Amino acid sequence: MTIHSFRRTALIAAVATIVQFFLFKHFYPFPSFFQDSYTYLDVAAHGYSISYRPVGYSMFLILIHFITSSDTALVFVQYCTLQLAGLYLYRSIGLLYSPWKVVRNILFLVLFFNPLSLYLANLVSSDALFTALTLVWLTELLWLMHEPSWGRLIRQLVLLVVIFYIRYNALCYPVITAAAFLFTRKGPGFKIAGIASSVLTLVLGAMVIGQLTKEQTGVRVFSAFSGWQMANNALYVYPYVKVERDRLPSPECRELDSVVAAYFDASGPGRRGHQLVDTWYMWDPGAPLKGYMRLRQRREHTSYFTAWNRVGPVFSQYGFYLLSHHPLVFSREYVWPSARMFFYPPLDVLGRYNEGEGEVDVLAREWFRMKSTKVWARSFTAQGFVLGWAPALYLVLNVAFAIAALLLLLKYGKGEFRAAMVLTGVYFLVNAAFCIFSTPNVFRYQAAPLIWLFVFTLLAYHRVFSPWNPVPAARKG
């Protein structure tokens, strides 16, 4: 790909981005909100240093708000961020692997005319920013494998930190980083420095958050959210096992277990009308986790947020005990349904505009200086039809990538593209393990994996069924 052709491609992409954006806003004049949106806005409005979720996206909202309070501007910036990430990936693929023109054209259409990017950008949520930065970070890892340098190492490290403060999924990203550094054409010192710095940076970040949480709530915990999530997952096991309360690891766990037992004695194991696994036990006011939190809140005379954080370590301990002592039941009742959702994730909030509501919270009106809390779209349900193909495509890509990787391994035992396929495979496995075991999956979590899998599945089949030069263009003399 020459400089001239890339400039022409970039110009077409820029024009397409602007045209698509204004056409989209004709049908969706306002952004789409859901529960997470108001958490992020609340943190931004009050300048909190910690919250229920990472505060990175709230800092991004503050930055945009410093320039303009326009909700349209926020959506535009988010959309441009996704498009620029796609442009960087497209340019890098052209330089590193020199695919045929027809392959480049397919990649161009998918990266720059993808309706998913528009709907992600229209959400007041961290999803668009997280997706874009993850794609840029993965692309940096490609460059590190092909043309390693200390500058690239630092760039990927900065990206990793930013991603971490946007979503804690990045805690598992050093595993992916390690796979990339193992393939770099540098000595062991460079590889060790790259892997160790990635791990150390996130550990230090977690320690800082833990200290801030202790100062504000009295308990040192990195993410109380993970404790709530672990307990939520464990409660799918509870109705099918016998818990010996005297063997639980702490008095707090025994007290929690009495609340849980009373709940299931009264309600039974079933929850009609709910999907197989979800986060209902975390959020429903009538669920036992909220009941135990209220008990602690009344006894300790604390705020809701303080109590929410203080019970996090108890929930982690309790959840880990149940899951570690009953792994087979956990696999049957939670892991298997969660795996099914991972490979065919529901659209969730992407299925309906603004969750089907014609109003937003007063907080959104004040932050974006809207005239009223009323919002509208040409259709509240059309996006479910427009994006209806996406979960099926994600399932197909997972299968297609696995087949392509096997075929590529049989045809080429070595090569730098093989290293990129290994990186993609590690990314897929790490992401799958995190999502399946930690939280019920929804489609917006898989936007970056979907795009990355599509790119490298297409490149892999092109490589397998064509006499593609195994030496990347960037390394040709």
Briefly say what this structure is:
About 70% of the residues lie in helices and about 0% in strands. The chain is an all-alpha fold. It folds into 2 domains: about 5-215 and about 345-475, no CATH class; about 225-325, no CATH class.
Written account of the structure:
With 477 residues, this protein is an all-alpha fold. It folds into 2 domains: 3-216 and 347-475, no CATH class; 223-325, no CATH class. The chain has helices spanning 3-27, 35-46, 56-67, 71-97, 101-112, 115-121, 127-146, 150-166, 173-182, 188-217, 224-234, 251-267, 280-283, 288-300, 304-310, 312-325, 327-343, 362-368, 382-386, 390-411, 416-438, 447-464. 41% of the residues are buried. The protein is globular. The longest helix is centred in the middle third of the chain and has 30 residues, at 188-217. It contains 22 helices and no strands.
Q: Can you give keywords for this protein?
A:
single chain, 477 residues, mainly alpha, 2 domains, 22 helices, 69% helix, 0% strand, globular, disordered C terminus
Unreliable spans are 468-477
Report on the biggest sheet: none
Q: How would you spell out the order of helices and strands?
A: HHHHHHHHHHHHHHHHHHHHHH
Helix content: 55-70%
Count of individual helical segments: 22
DSSP strand content: under 5%
Shape: globular
Q: How far apart are the first and last residues' alpha carbons, in Å?
A: 15 Å
Structural class of the helices, strands and pairings? mainly alpha
Give me the Rg, rounded: 24 Å
User: Domains counted in the coordinates: how many?
Assistant: 2
Q: Would you count the extended β strands for me? A: 0
| Mean pLDDT over the residues | 92
